[in-house]
Amino acid sequence: MAQLNVLVVGASIAGPMSAYWFAKAGAKITVIERFESLRTQGQAIDIRTIGVTTMRKMPGMEEAVRAKKAVVEGLSFIREDGRSFGMIKATGNPDQQSLLSEYEILRGDLSKILYDMTKDNENIKYVFNEQVVSLHQNEIVDGPVTVEFMNGYPTAQYDLVVACDGSTSRTRAIGFGCGVRDYIKPTNCWAAYMTIKEDLIAGSKIGHGLSSIPGRFMALGPNASGGNQACFMALNSSDNHDATLRFREAQKQGDVALKQFIAKHYDGHGWKTPEVLQAMMETKDFYASEIVQVKTTSLYKGRFVLVGDAGYAPGFTGGGTSLAMAGAYILAGEILKHKGSLMAGLKGYEEQMRPHITELQKVPPFVPTLMAPQSAWGLWLRNQIFAFVSWTNLMEYVQTLFGGALGENVEDKLPTYNWIA
């Protein structure tokens, strides 16, 4: 069989990870990214369960992640005056389920690690500032996909096109012939992330989180380069869709309008919120997105396939990165396993991934209540219960119980493949 020619769309996490494993399968890979350079901003993300298993199959990656892992040692829940009433700390055991993962890392740092692991591979080529305009497949005869690009990259044929460009994937819309928001299941939640120059937590390695009604949460954490990482997260009640629609409208208008929307939404939130909002207006490191689930009826159509959030964004369960990492591994492995029958490989990918997707898209019932109480009574009750649990010996047990609810056991096995490279 001739060397497989693969186009990967997206260079965040799922894209470089796919490139890594397809190169191990002996393929030739082109990775395109619509931004002009690698994006280094974004939130802290967790590598859990099958993500850890995948990472440990990549020589040197676990060490690279540990060297760049977030410096936060825990999360202190505070009142409006800044007083703590409870704390969650990382267990220090990478194989033990916890609300705080041992492998928490900034999205941009993980993307850079994966890019560095793949950029010098002779079978992997990165092309920035480029997007797919059209995909043409012969629906009668199984054959290569003809791809046209937006910014001048030559039209070419590929044996396989892999969409790794996020939950609102434009490539998914082109490849599946659907709308951008088709298959998206809103969670009525959005979040914004940024780095601010000021250190508002006085050098603490403990993150500080403040909740207020209705469903507002703000967190400040240490940044290895100085200053703080800041996050705003808003989870609206299931019947309040207008708040999320207003976020989308502001997002369409650009960062200035979106920052103004967030500032208005968090007016009166308390503690150091005014200082964080002022810093947000000035920061160049700003990223915001709606948090959604993606549920497709199939992960592929012909020789077009989805990996990561483009195919199975899990929402706020914390499993998105792990699903993307495992998905890239399984896709390349199944195609290698069924060498000579690309469609059999894609079918194998679907069958292998569905149980993981189903498991990691489950939203434990405690998550909305824990993160974003909607009423004053609910907030008071959450705080009282959490304060009691935090200052007793129950916290380690609760961490393990709740952490386990976020996904499968890290010891769950992934398929083993006979890699070429």
Describe it.
The chain has 421 residues and is α/β, with parallel strands linked by helices. The chain has a domain at 5-69 and 105-183 and 294-360: FAD/NAD(P)-binding domain (3-Layer(bba) Sandwich), CATH 3.50.50.60. The chain has 14 helices and 18 strands. It has helices at 14-24, 49-55, 61-68, 107-118, 170-176, 241-252, 255-265, 273-282, 309-312, 320-337, 342-360, 366-371, 376-390, 395-405; strands at 5-9, 28-33, 44-46, 74-78, 84-89, 104-106, 124-128, 132-136, 145-149, 156-158, 160-163, 184-196, 206-212, 216-222, 228-235, 286-294, 300-301, 304-306. The strands form four sheets. The protein has a seven-stranded mixed β-sheet, sandwiched between helices. Strand 8 (132-136) and strand 9 (145-149) form a beta hairpin. Helix 1 (14-24) runs parallel beside helix 4 (107-118), helix 3 (61-68) packs antiparallel against helix 4 (107-118) and helix 10 (320-337) runs antiparallel to helix 11 (342-360). The longest helix has 19 residues, at 342-360. It is globular, with a radius of gyration of 22 Å. The two termini are 16 Å apart. Mean pLDDT is 88; it is low at 92-98 and 401-408.
Question: How are the elements arranged and paired?
Answer:
Layout: E1 5-9, H1 14-24, E2 28-33, E3 44-46, H2 49-55, H3 61-68, E4 74-78, E5 84-89, E6 104-106, H4 107-118, E7 124-128, E8 132-136, E9 145-149, E10 156-158, E11 160-163, H5 170-176, E12 184-196, E13 206-212, E14 216-222, E15 228-235, H6 241-252, H7 255-265, H8 273-282, E16 286-294, E17 300-301, E18 304-306, H9 309-312, H10 320-337, H11 342-360, H12 366-371, H13 376-390, H14 395-405
